[in-house]
Specification:
This protein is an alpha/beta fold and about 350 residues long. It has two domains: about 10-80, no CATH class; about 90-344, Rossmann fold, CATH 3.40.50. About 35% of the residues lie in helices and about 15% in strands. The protein has helices at about 10-15, 20-25, 45-50, 55-70, 90-95, 115-125, 145-150, 190-205, 225-230, 250-260, 290-300, 310-315, 325-344; strands spanning about 100-105, 130-135, 155, 160-165, 165, 170-175, 210-215, 235-240, 265-275, 280-285, 300-310. Strands 1, 2, 5, 6, 7, 8, 9, 10 and 11 form a nine-stranded mixed β-sheet that branches. A two-stranded antiparallel ribbon has the order 3-4. It binds adenosine-5'-triphosphate. Adenosine-5'-triphosphate binds near residues 112 and 316. Homodimer.
Length: about 350
Amino acid sequence: MADTITADMVIHDVVTKFPATVKVFHGHGLPCTACAVGARESVAGGARTHRFTPEKLDLLVQDLNAAVNGEPISVAPKKAPVGRGVPLTMASSEPNRKIKNVIAIMSGKGGVGKSLVTGLLAVSLRRQGLQVGILDGDITGPSIARMFGTKGQPSKSANDGIEPLRSKGGIKVMSMNMFLEQESDPVVWRGPMVSSAIKQFYNDVDWGNLDYLLVDLPPGTSDAPMTVMQSLPLDGVVIVSSPQMLATMIVMKCINMVQQLKGEIVGVVENMSYFQTPSGERYEIFGPSNGTDLVGMTGAPLLGTMPIDPALAALCDAGRVEEYYAEPYEVLAQNFVSTLKIKR
Ligand SMILES: Nc1ncnc2c1ncn2[C@@H]1O[C@H](COP(=O)(O)OP(=O)(O)OP(=O)(O)O)[C@@H](O)[C@H]1O
């Protein structure tokens, strides 16, 4: 890319090559660097969308070049809003990030065990000595707090933020359940309120230094998963599926959504792949494993195939998920860590 910025250049390329231009875009009231659209939109296209006149566009381009050359610009530079849809590659290059990896766990449909996989992945990562947090993005159907048996309400942190609750094993947890008087109280909110709660859970919670923040998304491709994809500085998405799910088009919808929003699928997990008897016999209750098909569909590695274990469901219901130990989850955590290391 030439060193002179022109209106036909893609916004994402401009800010990646010249980080100083982010504040110029925002100073001009153009939020495209904080929007997934900026990944493919040109400077002129972004300006057009935001109804810039040709003169205003010229001034923007002039200021972008001035900023690169360290010269004064015509507007007050403005910081990009934290966590608002910063394109993935920019998110990971943010200097001094306190949260090293923000990973969303997603599934096309409810009940495939996404929350359970999120919880157990966190437990295994913590056992490796890593700092882990879970943001329960399932605002209207939260289950993470219950699984970890966290009690009480989050308090104000020393930095005036919200202090997340800690599980017995030291995992930081934030979930809508913690703000309800009764666990069974419904959260009857429309999409925008759900989206704003998710943003607050990311921005206002004092997560501190974390190796991994796992964001447990609600199922499907509605407002909430979209908010996370567009508003949090995600490093990647893990897709959880089950053998019988692949036969439907739901998994593909979920994969398409991630790809359309320029997210990166870092791995896939197949849950409920088999049931193993104490003597070691395996039964594929929901049909043969489709792990390799998942890999073909996403181009991402299969991080693990998880067994069905009735003991596990009982521990989750009792808030004692951290007491569970099974080899496949340790393997899952190892594969997860090494996959992300390779990606970096
Ligand atoms: N591998 C498994 N073995 C035994 N029980 C499981 C397994 N995976 C999930 N479950 C149980 O299935 C139920 C649904 O799991 P979970 O809540 O994790 O699904 P989900 O995909 O997050 O659903 P949703 O977000 O739609 O509520 C839970 O009771 C959970 O304990």
